[in-house]
Write a structure and sequence with these properties.
24 strands, seven-stranded antiparallel sheet, about 35% helix, nine-stranded antiparallel sheet
Length: about 525
């Protein structure tokens, strides 16, 4: 491998303002002159594509046939992930005590108590509440709900009391508005009211049934004249570390009335979404019964966006990318380091700095050249493999949680940008240490090792590594949002990162800027 360096032309007068363009052009000429570097980057892109493809093509689920849309096969049993109004997967499992409401109307009820139990064993799914201990999940929910259909994934609006988050108004799974704080006990009951006016549903709360406060409202576009409305109860998993324990909530309702009149006995109790094929783990099927003038409703599950991806046969838009990215990243680091250290080894760096005394400008130009090439190649690979990977996973019987177009574009651009930043940082480290082996080892230790340690460590150590090291940039791969109203172990093992995608990328950029600044200082202080 040889490098031929031609000094950029000296610029004077008006043309001096374009001097950086000349430096940039000179560095591009150097890079493209060595075909081995171009070939290595193309091979890195090919290797990334191949490994991502193999990862997506690998997972197969079997034993089920003729599955409905949104179904996956786990242990030869079809499991259906409901699809919500927005097209995303949802959890929709609860006990519903309802009757029909035609056109506009108002439903009111008082929740006099809300209690719960938690399974003693995480595997106690569809088990027995007797194998449990008292404990109300913080996001247990009980209240009033309106929906056009009891089919899972249907649009809805609900006002509810929760285990420890006060009163909330939620609709269509992803929307949440908080209201009156406090928990429900016998001396501090909560009155709830749900009002329908055309397509608009409004939830109210009161502490005494006299003075009402609006909690939230929603427009359920296309709501039919006849809907189902009534009482509901559900209770999600409670997590200890990464382990979720099924729970069950029981609520007592009193003073139930419709349009100002006491409710009749013509209410239908229906267990929504539970059973052996339920996507969301539950402690037991729901139930309801009358207790004097009160109605007692018990339910297990959740009504919320689906955030679980640890279930066998479930994946996200970025599930197949990680291994390919790491391998491609290592090759990119090698090429970036060689681009600098080869000049030092052959003594050509002296010629470069003689022609261009502004050494920091040379360093930045080198970084931009390699970074731009790496970004462009990575983006081509990501633009192809992200949709292709999802197609392969679905074709082999897996369920892929849907991601909107903006999320997919962010994953594609973000992954490419992180690799480009790694290349630029490797350029800076190489200028500091001057030796290829040391630069390559150091760059790999900075960008790859923290992620490996985070994956192995788990817990708080993993979270800090993913906050404070360049591994934070991998948060650009996160495909599912972190919902504040959903109790879940948002950990690396479940596809989540402690920082938002943009915050994680900012950490990577910070390391790159610091490396460039430090390298510039060293270049200016020492001989070439």
């Amino acid at each position: 491998m040889s490098v031929t360096t031609s000094a950029p032309p000296r610029l004077t007068g008006k043309s001096a303002s374009n001097s950086f363009q000349s430096v940039l052009w000179a560095e591009w000429i150097k890079f493209r002159t060595v075909r081995g570097w171009i070939i290595a980057l193309v091979l890195a892109a090919a290797a990334t594509f191949f490994l991502c493809y193999e990862t997506a093509a690998g997972p197969h689920t079997g034993g089920c046939s003729g599955l409905p849309a949104g179904a996956i096969c786990t242990s030869a049993l079809p499991t259906v992930v409901p699809t919500g109004p927005g097209g995303g997967g949802v959890a929709d499992t609860y006990e519903f005590v309802h009757h029909t409401l035609t056109r506009d109307g108002t439903v009111t009820a008082e929740i006099t108590s809300l209690a719960g139990v938690t399974a003693t064993n995480a595997s106690n799914v569809q088990g027995s509440p007797s194998a449990s201990h008292p404990g109300l999940a913080s996001w247990a929910k009980a209240g009033l709900l309106l929906t056009p259909s009891t089919t899972q994934g249907s649009a809805y609006a609900a006002v509810m009391a929760t285990g420890s988050h006060g009163v909330h108004f939620q609709y269509n799974y992803t929307h949440d508005t908080s209201g009156v704080a406090g928990t429900v006990t016998m001396p501090t009951s909560r009155w709830l009211r749900l009002v329908r006016s055309g397509d608009r549903i409004t939830g109210y709360a009161s502490t005494n049934g006299q003075r009402w406060t609006e909690v939230g409202s929603a427009d359920l576009t296309g709501l039919p004249a006849t809907v189902q409305v009534g009482l509901f109860a559900t209770s999600p998993l409670t997590f200890h570390g990464d382990t979720g324990y099924p729970t069950l909530a029981t609520a007592m309702f009193d003073h139930l009335n419709v349009d100002g009149s006491p409710a009749s006995n013509s209410w239908l109790g229906q267990d929504i979404g539970t059973g052996r094929t339920s996507f969301y783990p539950t402690l037991a099927t729901g139930s309801f019964h009358n207790s004097g003038t009160s109605v007692v409703v018990s339910g297990s599950g959740d009504i919320a966006p689906a955030v679980v991806q640890g279930l066998e046969g479930t994946h996200t838009a970025s599930s197949s990318l990680l291994l390919g990215l790491i391998v491609g990243l290592l090759v990119v680091i090698v090429v970036a380091a060689m681009f600098v250290t080869t000049e030092y080894r052959r003594g050509l760096i002296r010629t470069t700095f003689t022609a261009i005394p502004a050494r920091g400008r040379v360093l930045v130009a080198k970084g931009l050249v390699v970074g731009a090439i790496v970004f462009a190649l990575s983006l081509v690979v990501m633009a192809v493999i992200v949709p292709l990977g999802q197609h392969l996973l679905r074709a082999h019987g897996n369920y892929v949680f849907s991601a909107n177009t903006l999320t997919q574009v962010r994953i594609e651009i973000g992954a490419s940008a992180v690799v480009a930043m790694a290349a630029i940082t490797a350029i800076a480290l190489s200028a500091m240490v001057r030796r290829a082996a040391v630069a390559i080892t150091g760059s790999a230790a900075v960008f790859v090792l923290p992620f490996i340690l985070a994956a192995a460590a788990g817990g708080g150590a993993s979270a800090w590594l993913l906050r404070l090291t360049p591994a934070a940039g991998l948060s650009m791969l996160q495909a599912l949002p972190h919902y504040s109203q959903v109790s879940y172990a948002y950990t690396l093992g479940n596809g989540y990162y402690p920082l938002t995608p943009l915050a994680g990328f900012a950490v990577v950029c910070g390391y790159t800027v610091i490396a460039l600044a430090a390298a510039t200082v060293l270049l200016n202080r020492r001989d070439a």
